[in-house]
Specification:
6 helices; Four Helix Bundle (Hemerythrin (Met), subunit A); 3% strand; mainly alpha; 202 residues; elongated; two-stranded antiparallel ribbon; 2 strands
């Protein structure tokens, strides 16, 4: 079996499908920019994490041609790569589904709209930041699937810490401006589901 061909096929098909699914979301985000804003963060965390994610996406495309790949042989490794490619697909669609659940309150920026409402359904019932977590995990698993060290390094040491900081900044705005967010924060885990009642912010 040609594992490289199979993995590339999975990734390319998923990119094409998610691109078509993202077109309506991009249109929705553009329309939201025309709507009244209550407050907006003024920080490098508005653009830098998204820029890093875009660079990683470009690296994934380039990685399909073997650029940055390390040679590791063995059926076990190859099946791990296939499994990682499938997880890349799963987290891509979790991210899209989560964006759709935010509906009119979704924005690529850290922004609070007038009459902003708390969304507590779907994946947002389980964790507070499914969109950021999905972005990080899909890039991480793409790096494993492609055996691409630069992608893994960028994801773990740039994208991951930047989204951690961005999530913290976003929550500061949500606590100040969205009703019941503090109670939601106590009840729902930030990155992992809360199985027991932990202290706020854990």
């Amino acid at each position: 079996m040609n594992f490289d061909y199979l993995i590339n096929l999975i990734i390319v098909i998923n990119i094409l499908l998610t691109f078509s699914a993202n077109l309506p979301l991009a249109s929705q985000a553009f329309k939201k920019k025309l709507q009244p804003v209550l407050t907006k963060a003024n920080s490098f965390l508005q653009s830098l994490p998204k820029t890093i994610s875009t660079l990683i996406f470009v690296m994934i495309i380039i990685g399909l041609f073997g650029v940055g790949k390390v040679e590791v042989k063995g059926d076990l490794i190859n099946w791990l790569r296939v499994f990682s490619a499938l997880l890349f697909v799963v987290f891509s669609w979790i991210q899209i589904y989560s964006v759709k659940q935010l509906a009119e309150y979704y924005s690529p920026d850290i922004v609070i709209y007038k009459n902003h409402q708390l969304i507590d359904k779907g994946f947002f019932k389980v964790i507070r930041h499914p969109i950021y977590l999905s972005q990080i995990l899909q890039d991480f698993f793409a790096g494993i699937a492609l055996l691409n060290i630069p992608i893994l390094v960028m994801t773990l040491f740039l994208e991951f810490p930047l989204y951690l900081k961005r999530a913290n900044l976003e929550e500061e705005f949500l606590i100040k401006n969205v009703n019941n967010y503090s109670e939601y924060k106590r009840r729902v885990g930030k990155w992992l589901p809360k199985l027991i009642n932990l202290k706020s912010g854990e």
